[in-house]
Amino acid sequence: MAVARDLRTLLSLQGFRRLLSVRLFSQGADGVYQVGLATFVVFAPEEQTSPAAIASAMAVLLLPYSLVGPFVGVLLDRWRRRQVFLYGNLLRALMATVTACLMALSVPDWLFFASALCVTAVNRFVLAGLSAALPRVVDTERLVIANSLSPTAGTLVATAGGGLAFVVRLAVVDSDAAVVLLAGALYLCGALASLRIPVASLGPDRAPSRQRLSVALTDTVRGLVPGLRHLASPECREAAWALTGMTLMRFCYGALLVMLLMLCRYALAATPEEGLALLGLAIGASGVGFFAAAVLTPWAAGRLGPRRWMAVCAGAAAVLEPALGLPFSTAPMLAAALLLGLTTQGSKISTDTIVQHQVDDAFRGRVFSVYDVLFNVAFVGAAGIAALMLPPDGRSPSLVLTVSAVYVTVAAIMTRCARR
Fold first, then answer.
1. What is the mean pLDDT of residues 195-216?
2. Max Cα separation, the chain?
3. DSSP 80
4. pLDDT at 178 over 70
């Protein structure tokens, strides 16, 4: 098969393998860390979690960096991307250790969230840098399959990391702090893996800046405008539409995730421990969907084009998510989680490919940082809407139907874009 041949070719490329190893350690650690936070915030037996509390936690962790996120890309276009992976993962290892200590000491919530916020902030640099660096290690003809394998492998490893965190939390040690310490160890492994990559090989093609901080910040503001202007130009129109569609799908993902958390916490489980185990199964089902997207997307995007494939994913979700979600029972919910993973990841692979094809390398870091900010804003906005619509047990037909309507909108946008 052509896909298998392309995969063998990609894995034979030393630069791609090394970049992939950094992604796998980094995102595996992300999965462990996020589950550690979720179990601490949502499934603590002494806490009565509400959708509003979940939305507030998401806002505290994500919104501040949505305000400064566009500046991440300008800095990525100035700094060596390999150094971002090295120092970023070292800093996250340190801050994850601090977070674990704060959890064990039962400090005030604001101090715990401040520490977690630092890990989230560095995550913005690492993930945007991984996407921006990918075209430096593969050729244009294999960029679609690289976008299928690399980010999807990262997502699968993040899911596996989440599963490992569940196992550690439920079967090994009853401590969220221990789970977060495990994440810190994996971040350290990601930093060590980046040392195998030559410093200058991932770009950008300019020497690191030696300017003072004040001058660098001024240049950052000035550099942001050309990046946005480039994204708005006619030659990047497809990239702009793809980012719009993916932002809306991220909104759907966030809303359904909050609903899933509440269902697992209250409606579908008798105890927090049972709810945590059920959430682990749902995340596993979603991981199967991510894997299916990695297999299907290169073939489907090759035959239909990335834009039409996004339209198909959104259209399928618009029909099947309500059909599977409205019963609010365990088996259909797990099937809906699998479908959500497939359609969301399939659309993300397509969006990554469109952006990488259309955006010039000099602006790519800035555009991917804007992409990341849109993800955060859509996710937090979805959590806020879910907090307003969800009852205490998480059963909300109106939320499911609203999400379906958004999926219909995305399918219409991408169908029109493909016709153009």
1. 73
2. 59
3. -
4. yes
